[in-house]
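Backbones bend. To wit:
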Amino acid sequence: MLIFLLLVGSLPLCADDNIPIGYQEAVPWGNQLLKVKKGKSYGLLRKNGEVVLNADYSRISDLNCYGKAILQKGNKYGVINGDGEVLVPAQYKFLFDFIHVSQLPEDKRMAAYGNAHVSLAEFSTLDTLITDAKFLRFKKESNYNSYIIDDQGNIISEDVAPTISLPVNGMMRWWVYGTTFYAIGYYNIENQKSIQIRYDGENAQELINMPGFSHGDFIGDIAPVRDGDTFFFINKNGEKVKDGYDVQCNATEYIWVFSKDGQSEIVNSRGETLFAKEGYTDLHFPPSDGTPSLMAAKSNGKWGVVTMDGQQVIPFKYDDAEILPNELFRVAISGQWGVVDKKGKVLVPCMYMDIEMSRDASENACWVEPSDSLYHVFLIKEQKQLPTGYVYIYPFKEGYAWAQPNDSLYLNRSQASDERYGAVVGVDGRTYFSTPLRYEDYPLVLDFIHKNGDKPLGSLEGRRLYLYMTRDQRSYRFENIIPEEEWDY
């Protein structure tokens, strides 16, 4: 019996598992499979003992949320799915997953154009996959340049450049530079042609140190290219469709806003002008899935609200304006912020240093910052600012917000742990969870509050929930009995 346990492993298996002798370990993995260990190698079996993947691999990682995992053999890497199918053979020494710039740590981010989508290939798959692995980058050991493979292991790009980005709308950015030259361009995945849009052998260092990306991803059929202090736009054939723009950003997935000679205009992802009325020097509208009906506009130094055909909705009388996705507007007069609706009705008077408003159209509250430099709940229907002030807040979501009270219980704990601790506050201004809570734990508490009938949690309920949340972070000395008042929640 002892010999059998040593050969099969000491981990308990289900009664219907039929694991052949010779494996030291068997754990559930993927879609009803078992990851088994033989010596120092890993493989996959079905529960009836059928071999899905021979135990020839030095590592099989856990599946990511897309059902993909890293397959490793020595110092070579590949990709496998939850059914044990090898999608990309473990034959690449340098394999990279693509990651969006917003997912990178702060110290690794580079400035982008406005909120334009800019993709990077900065995440090595030596540890794990973070995407669906539809596209991966790899390098050949004998070659300096990079290649793109799809999730079936097919090479879909030629030998282009050492640094390449995630294909977006069929186009892949590439760039290469040395001490004496700088070149950037795009590679068309569909026709497998490369377009060099800039080469400079004299001002290479100046271009390398250029703020922001030298060229952005294709949003639809056009992409921005920095040209000194201005930008030009190109289509998928490398032809300029717009040139000499001072400022630009992509405001939605399908629409660009940029200006030239003091005039702002809106262009769609095909390069077609949607709005180019004279007299508007700045335009603003929130991210959306289509063309917005309203936008904040600036004319003669003042802000108002207009429709896409240029009809004025709110007079040009504000020093600043910002439209929110629920068609409410943050507006400012003499540095004091307020909120108006699309008809110009004042919802929050212009008397606050700052206003933080949720993107939830059904909300009845927002955060306002008066002269005490603390944030307070403002009840919109009641036109009432509540007295309790908070040092740090997040906007309301699903009727609740995480906020750090101006209270020693929260502030001292935050200083001691170098993390912020707060409470859960409802749109009615009441505290629904008062135990000091990190923001990263807030979603779990919010889910519990919803399941509890959206009622404030009592002190006992709150302590029980927090003990459950921190169960993996605590240890106990069984020889001591700790009185409840000394528990560290």
About this structure: The radius of gyration is 28 Å. Confidence is low (pLDDT under 50) at residues 1-16, 112-117.
